[in-house]
Amino acid sequence: MTGHFPPPPARGCSDTPVLKERGQHEVFCGLTGIIWLHRKMQDAFFLVVGSRTCAHLLQSAAGVMIFAEPRFATAILEETDLAGMADAQEELDRVVTQLLERRPDIRQLFLVGSCPSEVIKLDLGRAAERMSAQFAPRVRVLNYSGSGIETTFTQGEDACLAAMVPVLPDTDSRELLLVGALPDVVEQQALDLLEAMGIGPVRVLPAQSVEDDYGIGPNTVFALTQPFLSDTHAALTRRGARHIAAPFPFGEEGTTAWLSAVAAEFDVPQDLFESVTAAPRARARKAVSQASEGLRDRSVFFFPDSQLEIPLARFLTRECGMAAVEVGVPFLHRAIMSPDLDLLAEGPTLAEGQDVDKQLARCRAARPDLTVCGLGLANPLEAEGMATKWAIELVFTPVHFYEQAGDLAGLFSRPLRRRGLLKLEAAE
Q1: DSSP secondary structure, 161-195, as one string
Q2: Residues within the annotated binding site for [4Fe-4S] cluster?
Q3: Cβ–Cβ under 8 Å, residues 227 and 247
Q4: Considering the entire predicted model, what is its pTM?
Q5: pLDDT in tens, 119-129
Q6: CATH architecture under which domain 30-151 falls
Q7: CATH of the domain spanning 1-27+174-428, picked from 3.40.50.280, 3.40.50.720, 3.40.50.1980, 3.30.1330.30
Q8: Annotated binding site: which residue ranges?
Q9: Where are the alpha helices (DSSP H) in 222-355?
């Protein structure tokens, strides 16, 4: 791999001591992942077993009108369910039967646990097994937890994909599996690049349909496109698949390194790799240069929120010229994060988990130029005169691979540009 990047740092962050915090934390609900997953899997349905609050969250987050027909819904736990006065399993059977009668297009049904269903110890795993036997082969019923009690919001996708892995068929075919939900246009860009290098067959998890023909076996190699898929990584490894370790495809450097690792696995000649990637790399480099104007020599502080923090810190420091003060992550999975940690020059504090009061104190003391955090912290910090970027926007916005590299840099430069304009107006 060649590129117009700084050389790898003499000392990366792989051996940096990690500050582990286990206090009060600020997280967004794991049910949020349904908002992008239900768009990817065209024949799937997500039935959240939860409260009216869960239903309101999904409606608000998705911007779906109440009379629309999305591929998700909430089975409301009423007072009688919570008090144990009704058989919740019987009620769930009734709701699912009505749903499948009304929606014969559903081929894959996810029973999604929530905080309320977990508090009352409702066994959705047993329910999924019972319903799978009842409705097979027309409908496959799976279960995962989207509860936000101890998890961050991107782990909903991780739990969903991990639940799918055990039921995928066995195969001995040598195949590349791309793992992680991406916007359709971004996913297609990746597939086009891989196809131009002669790499294939390439499968995608999650697939659009349960009928998509692929399995998992000892000859499967997989590349993660999202850094928060630790449970899915473990599930695939247990099935015998092998992970292609690489930096994540954010920015020109990350995308080139990710593609290079996959190309090396499939013995792609270097001249072919260069010819396929040269033009999009040049576009990405130009776009990042333009969009990152104003980021150079600025400082950034990451609160733990989305699990994207480490590869984003690598992108901002190496391609946009920023300095990372602290990089907080909800969980640090070294088998997944090591390639990015190797490229992130030592200097920033690495923090795993969160004690929100202590981290706020460190952030206020550092006074970074930009703070990346959740919505619950952004407004108070903005009121204190600090520029912020909502972490959730980095998940909902297409930011992977070459064609989105400039957009990614722009997400970070806009808050600083806006704050500069506000200061200018105030001075006038």
Answers
A1: HHHHGGGSPB--S-EEEEES---HHHHHHHHHHHH
A2: 29, 54, 115
A3: no
A4: 0.92
A5: 778 889 999 99
A6: 3-Layer(aba) Sandwich (3.40)
A7: 3.40.50.1980
A8: 29, 54, 115
A9: 230-238, 251-265, 270-291, 309-319, 334-343
